[in-house]
């Protein structure tokens, strides 16, 4: 019986190793075989990942992903690597990476412990915080003033979960509406269908800048959350992650990432050629002093 049990344990270990080997290199193998790298992108996560007037994916995270793709191309010795784009939503973006439909998610996704169960993240490219978007004439500057009022946030996002938790912790009776994309949340505030839209402040500024009448909206309130935003990738290819992490760290340490940041946060951007005028925060500068994919959230 003891011999049989030892044999079964050995067989189980072999099967486990075989399973791990089947996953190892899966992303790089797919990229080598196809000559393509697939970017998951967003429709309206300004200025990280969104569609311009010609419906082309553009943004800060897209530009970073293009640099990461070039590092992958050099590493695998390919003459060329064609970017392929797959539009995702907050609800299906994690699934798109976990199921291998995309290789990099180039957006505004928060790296947190729950998501790390399914996917991996590289070094954060932005540190954001969730705040409130309200109408310019609204007398609201704090979450507590939304008690009993209708509030909107985007499905599958950490600000939505934080809002729900805040309501429980502070006994606030929010009437929370969930929308599939950020633009719809802004529209609800504009039309008076909701008193506030809760989302990462940088996204709110970008969304306001893209509206026909940006002066009718304002971003208010203290931070509801602190969000390390990072590019998402598969957990199942250590070599691919090493290439991505090494290139992110190189871009940060060499400061080659700074002009990319300036292009999207300090200069006029599509579609209305409006500048967000958001200098790099001290939070991000401090985090980049020792760039790492490790975050304590």
Automatic annotation (TrEMBL):
<feature type="signal peptide">
    <location>
        <begin position="1"/>
        <end position="24"/>
    </location>
</feature>
<dbReference type="GO" id="GO:0005576">
    <property type="term" value="C:extracellular region"/>
</dbReference>
<keyword id="KW-0813">Transport</keyword>
<dbReference type="Pfam" id="PF00497">
    <property type="entry name" value="SBP_bac_3"/>
</dbReference>
<feature type="domain" description="Solute-binding protein family 3/N-terminal">
    <location>
        <begin position="36"/>
        <end position="268"/>
    </location>
</feature>
<keyword id="KW-0732">Signal</keyword>
<comment type="similarity">
    <text>Belongs to the bacterial solute-binding protein 3 family.</text>
</comment>
<dbReference type="InterPro" id="IPR001638">
    <property type="entry name" value="Solute-binding_3/MltF_N"/>
</dbReference>
<protein>
    <submittedName>
        <fullName>Amino acid ABC transporter substrate-binding protein</fullName>
    </submittedName>
</protein>
<dbReference type="GO" id="GO:0030288">
    <property type="term" value="C:outer membrane-bounded periplasmic space"/>
</dbReference>
<dbReference type="GO" id="GO:0006865">
    <property type="term" value="P:amino acid transport"/>
</dbReference>
<dbReference type="InterPro" id="IPR051455">
    <property type="entry name" value="Bact_solute-bind_prot3"/>
</dbReference>
């Amino acid at each position: 019986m003891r011999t049989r049990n030892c044999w079964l344990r050995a067989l189980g270990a072999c099967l486990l190793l075989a399973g791990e080997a089947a996953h190892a290199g899966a992303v790089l193998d797919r990229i080598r075989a196809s000559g393509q790298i697939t970017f998951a992108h967003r429709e309206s996560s300004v200025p990280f990942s969104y569609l311009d007037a010609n419906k082309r994916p553009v943004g800060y995270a897209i530009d970073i992903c293009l640099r990461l793709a070039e590092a992958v191309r050099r590493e695998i010795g390919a003459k060329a690597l064609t970017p392929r784009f797959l539009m995702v939503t907050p609800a299906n973006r994690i699934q798109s990476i976990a199921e291998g439909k995309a290789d990099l998610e180039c957006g505004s996704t928060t790296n947190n412990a729950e998501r790390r169960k399914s996917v991996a993240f590289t070094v954060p490219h932005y540190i954001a915080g969730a705040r409130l978007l309200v109408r310019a004439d609204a007398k609201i500057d704090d979450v507590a003033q939304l008690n009993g009022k209708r509030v909107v946030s985007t499905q599958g996002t950490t600000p939505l979960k934080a809002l729900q938790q805040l309501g429980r912790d502070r006994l606030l009776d929010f009437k929370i509406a969930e929308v599939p994309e950020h633009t719809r949340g802004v529209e609800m505030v504009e039309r008076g269908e909701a008193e506030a839209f809760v989302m990462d402040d940088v996204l709110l500024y970008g969304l306001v800048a893209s509206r026909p009448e940006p002066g009718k909206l304002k971003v208010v309130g203290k931070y509801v959350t602190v969000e390390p935003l990072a590019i998402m990738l598969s957990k199942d290819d250590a070599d691919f992650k090493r290439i991505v992490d090494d290139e992110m760290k190189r871009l940060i340490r060499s400061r080659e990432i700074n002009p990319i940041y300036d292009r999207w946060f300090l200069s006029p951007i599509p579609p209305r050629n409006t500048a967000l005028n958001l200098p790099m925060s001290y939070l991000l500068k401090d985090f980049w002093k020792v760039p790492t994919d490790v975050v304590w959230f």
